[in-house]
C-alpha cells in the first residue's frame, strides 16, 4: 500500500476525525482536572496519570476507528462492510462546530486558570521559630 492509498483509507475510515475529536476532548478533560485540583498537593501526579491514561486511550481509539465501522446495525469489522455502503456520519459543518465549541471551552478553562493563578497571592512557606 503506497502512502497516497494509505492516507485516502485513513480519511475513508474517519481516523482523522476520531483523532481530532479525541485530542480536543482530552485537552478539555486535562484542563478541567487541572482547574478542579488546583488547590491540592497531588495535582501534578493526578494530571500526569490522566495524561498517560488519555494517551493510551488515544491509541486504542485510533485502532478502533481503523478496524471497525459504525453501522445502523452496530459496530462491524471494516472488512465485513462493503466499501460502497452508505454509513451515517456527521456533516463536516456539524463536526467543525463541535470541535470549535469544545476547543473554545478548553481554551476558556485555560485562560480562567491562568488569570486565577496570577491574582492569587503567593503564600510564603511556614517558618519555624527557634
Structural overview:
It contains 4 helices and 2 strands. With 130 residues, it is mainly alpha-helical. Strands 1-2 form a two-stranded antiparallel sheet. Helix 2 (15-36) packs antiparallel against helix 3 and helix 2 (15-36) runs parallel beside helix 4 (92-119). It is elongated, with a radius of gyration of 21 Å. The N and C termini lie far apart (74 Å).
Features:
single chain; mainly alpha; 130 residues
The ordered string of helix (H) and strand (E) elements is HHHEEH
Rg over C-alpha atoms, rounded to the nearest angstrom: 21 Å
The tally of beta strands, per DSSP, is: 2
Number of helices: 4
Would you summarize the structure shown here?
This protein is mostly helical. The chain has helices at residues 3-12, 15-36, 43-67, 92-119; strands at 68-71, 74-77. The N and C termini lie far apart (74 Å).
How would you summarize the topology of this molecule?
Elements: H1 3-12, H2 15-36, H3 43-67, E1 68-71, E2 74-77, H4 92-119
Antiparallel strand pairs: 1-2
Helix pairs in contact: 2-3, 2-4
Amino acid at each position: 500500500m503506497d502512502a497516497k492509498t494509505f492516507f485516502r483509507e485513513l480519511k475513508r475510515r474517519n481516523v482523522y476525525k476520531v483523532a481530532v475529536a479525541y485530542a480536543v476532548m482530552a485537552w478539555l478533560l486535562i484542563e478541567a482536572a487541572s482547574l478542579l485540583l488546583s488547590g491540592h498537593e497531588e495535582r501534578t501526579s493526578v494530571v500526569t496519570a490522566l495524561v498517560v491514561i488519555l494517551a493510551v486511550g488515544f491509541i486504542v481509539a485510533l485502532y478502533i476507528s481503523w478496524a471497525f465501522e459504525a453501522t445502523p446495525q452496530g459496530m462491524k469489522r471494516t472488512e465485513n462492510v462493503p466499501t460502497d455502503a452508505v454509513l451515517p456520519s456527521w456533516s463536516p459543518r456539524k463536526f467543525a462546530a463541535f470541535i470549535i465549541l469544545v476547543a473554545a471551552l478548553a481554551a476558556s478553562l485555560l485562560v480562567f486558570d491562568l488569570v486565577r493563578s496570577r491574582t492569587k497571592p503567593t503564600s510564603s512557606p511556614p517558618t519555624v521559630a527557634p
